[in-house]
UniProtKB/TrEMBL annotation, chain A:
It comes from the Bacteria. This is Uncharacterized protein.
From TrEMBL, chain B:
Residues 7-290 form the ARG and Rhodanese-Phosphatase-superfamily-associated domain. InterPro entries: ARPP-2. It holds the Pfam family ARPP-2. This is ARG and Rhodanese-Phosphatase-superfamily-associated domain-containing protein. It comes from the Bacteria.
């Protein structure tokens, strides 16, 4: 009985973590956003109700930001149900996870807690601690003014200095002593003052003052964050004639790959983009300490990897990033795209999905590890890839095979798998391939739950270490 | 000029089906497209259209009235050179700003004004409406002998007005989503559309890049009522798998052979599903010939026990299908055509026709009335057979 229970726990846990890597509640190629959010909400409630400790510990596994904030909200909402001996760890996990979330996600989470009227002592303490520990509180107050105010009120925060007046009266004040607040006030009345503000706030005010887009983009440049810089590449190119200077070494691998597959001019900038991506991949490999031997990789570039309007070319970007990552991490690397491409960097999403042929080609090279990056749908002929893998695993000597899937399938509560014999792992960014390959081991039938829990313990300890710089 | 022939997808091959919900789409691929016949879409104003079948538009004469969302422009060369749309690419010649599209003939030549400037000849056709018009005009003249059983209307005006209804592709449940997630092959030139594994339509063009632009245009085509009902009644097509024989596999090359076998089975399966269209002989009428191509429309024998598809196609001299579009008639439509055909074969004599159909005269009158042809019969005939006038 206990063995069966362990098995169910292990499978549920893996399904949940997998879903948390891949699902973002956004529309995918094959399913709509609503179905995704219904499906993932149900999964969260199920795991929260049955395995509360494991649910909290998922925060330490590198789940994506969407799911991390969902876990945080659910945990804080149901604080009463926490077992007494788990309270301390859960609290620490929550506080640490909130710190590692990107600022906008964290602020929106606090606002959501206020909206959902989650107002227990722990929630108030967490909000107080989070807002009080911001390194640059004025910047936060200006950039996230509404969320900040709502969360502060909700947590009965005692506001010091000019915060109270700033939240209450905003721009309707004679003057502020705090420079950033003063800039915020001035910017409401004068177009020249908007350039001291964060970009997202200045953008609205520029609209209000009718500042021409190119003037605005030119002068706001020093205030841009790196992500904003990346996002505004084509906008700045259109209006300024030159894109904002990017520092590719600050961009994480998958984000850079996403940017590259979106560029119509990649052929012309091939050398530059390749160098940036390669450097980023090398850095990611160094950080993860991953080393593989001879790796063959089957990469899906069929039309479905064009993603959806909300996640444009995301699966393709993950495949490209995975290819660069594995090339940097392995002694010998052979890629097999579903439609062979002369130049990986110029890869685009087209054609039907024939996974069987590249899988057979890959197996023929006798690699030490076979990685398949695909959304799990194959249609040329339908379902044959799974059968090929099943037959190969049953009848032939094959290397370890891992199927990596960046797409959440709402109907099966998990990234769609190819067959039973090959573990399917959800993935958020290609940088996390080593984690996925490690977790894939847990999906094997002979792995005991204790082993999974031990690895989880280690991750929680690592996650709760005194804060150093967060890995990007 | 009518002749009979069997349809075939000559020089084309089918790929593996892709399924979503009730819709199964089978790609049709062409390995070599010479490019001397190109087809593109012309959008019309979204309004009903009146097509003059004889005489100029706006003048009295035989008209075909329907919702016609688009036409196809076919450009072709005689000498096998690349066909081009010339300088008029993207130009709209439809009647803008009117509430009705007035169109001249189903197939109309549209050559460049500067005749001789290019070797490309062009004509416009109204897809499927060409075939549908042929179907509606079948025995359109009505009785050729003035038997006293027929109404004055039937004697004077024949079947006029003759009407059939159909369903727009956009209304087929799940069709739009299935087209959206369909992954096109690089050499794909056509698609077979199955709804709940019943063949709804076959659509083929001559060039892969034309097909890419026309892929979604089938949403605006019309489909039979039967297909629509199938889509509602069977929202899921059962998944089909071709199992690999594991016991035959000892090496990777064995596995490769098994995959090739499975691929072949899928092609066989698509052929089996589409058998209703390709097995039977159809009557083919040449609408326009422009060597080396022929534009033809076809319809089958209207047998109520069989699938009946009508359509149109462009074939090259060597039998290569360059364009094809078919429409599946619903059971009621087949019945109506069947009754008319039997009547016509019996010289419109009710008694003889009843004998051909192995029923009594009264029963035939009832059947005609139920099929919507009551207006052809004189009131006293309807009354005598117990059918309310």
């Amino acid at each position: 009985m206990s063995a069966a229970l362990d098995r169910v726990t292990r499978e549920d846990w893996l399904m949940f973590v997998n879903a948390c890597f891949a699902c973002t509640g956004q529309r995918e190629f094959y399913s709509d956003g609503h179905g995704q959010s219904v499906s993932i909400d149900f999964l969260h409630q199920y795991i929260l109700g049955n395995y509360r400790r494991l649910y909290a510990r998922a925060l330490a596994c590198g789940v994506n930001d969407f799911n991390a904030s969902l876990i945080l909200a659910n945990l804080l909402e149901t604080g009463k149900a926490t077992p007494a001996d788990h309270k301390a760890e859960e609290g620490a996990l929550i506080a640490r996870a909130l710190e590692t979330l990107p600022a906008h996600r964290a602020m929106h989470l606090l606002e959501r807690l206020a909206k959902r009227r989650v107002n227990n002592r722990r929630t108030r303490a967490i909000i107080r601690q989070f807002l009080g520990s911001r390194p640059n509180p004025e910047h936060h107050a200006v950039k996230y003014r509404r969320s900040f105010r709502r969360a502060a009120l909700h947590a009965h925060l005692r506001l010091e200095g000019e915060y109270a007046t700033f939240f209450l009266r905003g721009a309707n004040m004679r003057a502020y002593a705090t420079p950033l607040f003063e800039a915020f006030r001035k910017a409401h009345y004068s177009a020249s003052a908007i350039y001291e503000l964060p970009f997202s706030i200045a953008e609205g005010l520029a609209q209000k003052h009718g500042v021409p887009r190119d003037t605005f983009l030119k002068r706001i440049e020093p205030n841009l964050t790196h992500t904003e810089r990346l996002r505004l590449q084509s906008a700045s190119h259109d209006s300024l004639g030159a894109a904002y200077a990017l520092e590719p070494n600050k961009l994480p691998l998958t984000k850079l790959a996403s940017y590259i597959v979106s560029r119509p001019d990649r052929a012309a900038r091939r050398a530059e983009l390749h160098d940036a991506l390669w450097a980023s991949a090398r850095r990611a490999v160094r950080r993860s300490n991953a080393r593989f031997g001879k790796v063959a990789c089957v990469l899906d570039r069929s039309y479905s990897s064009s993603g959806s309007t909300e996640k444009r070319r995301r699966p393709l970007a993950v495949a490209l990033a995975a290819s660069y990552f594995l090339r940097a991490a392995s002694a010998e690397y052979i890629p097999f795209w579903t439609h062979p491409t002369g130049d990986e960097l110029l890869v685009d999403a087209r054609g039907a999905t024939d996974l069987a042929t590249p899988i057979l080609d890959a197996l023929e090279t006798e690699p030490d590890l076979l990685v398949i990056v695909s959304d799990g749908f194959d249609n040329d002929p339908p379902g044959i890839a799974g059968q090929v893998l099943q037959a190969a695993c049953a009848r032939l000597r094959v290397p370890p095979i891992v199927h990596i899937n960046a797409v959440f399938d709402a109907e099966s509560y998990a990234p769609k798998s190819l067959c039973r014999a090959v573990p399917t792992m959800g993935i958020r960014d290609a940088e996390e391939l080593p984690t996925a390959i490690l977790f894939a081991r847990f999906a094997r039938a002979d792995v005991h739950l204790d082993e999974v829990l031990a690895s989880l313990d280690a991750r929680v300890r690592h996650f709760l270490r005194p804060p150093t710089k967060r890995a990007a | 000029m009518m002749k009979t022939a069997k349809l075939a997808l000559t020089n084309l091959r089918t790929g593996s089906p892709q399924t979503l919900g009730a819709i199964r789409l089978v790609p049709i691929c062409r390995d070599r497209a010479p490019g001397d016949l190109r087809i593109r879409l012309r959008d019309l104003v979204p309004a009903p259209a009146i097509v003059s079948l004889d005489g100029a538009p706006g003048e009295p004469g035989l008209k075909y009235v329907s919702y016609v969302p688009h036409g196809l422009v076919v450009a072709h060369t005689k000498d096998g050179a690349q066909a081009s749309f010339g300088t008029t690419l993207g130009e709209e010649r439809g009647a803008r700003g009117r509430c009705v599209n007035l169109l001249h003939r189903m197939v109309k030549r549209e050559d460049d004004v500067r005749e001789g400037a290019t070797s490309t000849a062009r004509f416009r056709l109204l897809p499927l409406h060409l075939a549908m018009e042929g179907f509606l005009a079948h025995h359109f003249g009505g009785p050729d002998i003035a038997w006293s059983e027929y109404s004055q209307h039937a004697i004077r005006r024949g079947l006029d007005p003759r009407a059939e209804s159909s369903v727009r592709g956009r209304s087929l449940p799940g069709f739009e989503a299935a087209l959206r997630v369909f992954e096109m092959h690089p050499t794909q030139v056509g698609v077979m559309i199955f709804v709940a594994d019943a063949l709804a339509s076959v659509f083929v063009v001559s060039h892969p890049s034309d097909y890419r632009l026309l892929h979604r245009s089938v949403l605006e085509d019309f489909f039979g009522q039967l297909v629509y009902e199938y889509g509602l009644l069977y929202p899921e097509t059962p998944p089909i798998e071709t199992p690999l024989h594991e016991e035959r596999i000892a090496s990777i090359s064995d596995l490769r052979a098994e995959v090739a076998r499975a691929r072949g089975e899928w092609e066989e399966y698509a052929r089996l599903l589409a058998d209703g269209l390709f097995r039977r002989e159809v009557r083919v009428e040449t609408v326009r010939s422009m060597a080396p191509f022929r534009l033809e429309r076809f319809m089958p024998d209207f047998d109520p026990d069989e699938e009946c598809h009508l359509g149109e196609r462009i074939v090259r001299d060597d039998g290569t299908v360059e364009y094809m579009k078919t429409f599946r008639l619903s059971a009621a439509q087949v019945r109506r055509a069947h009754l008319l055909e039997q009547l016509a074969r019996a010289g419109w004599n009710l008694g003889d026709a009843a004998a051909r159909l192995r029923c009594t005269r009264d029963e035939l009158v009832k059947r005609l009335d139920n099929a919507g042809f009551g207006y052809l019969l004189a009131p006293h005939v309807l009354r005598a057979s117990g059918t309310a006038p």
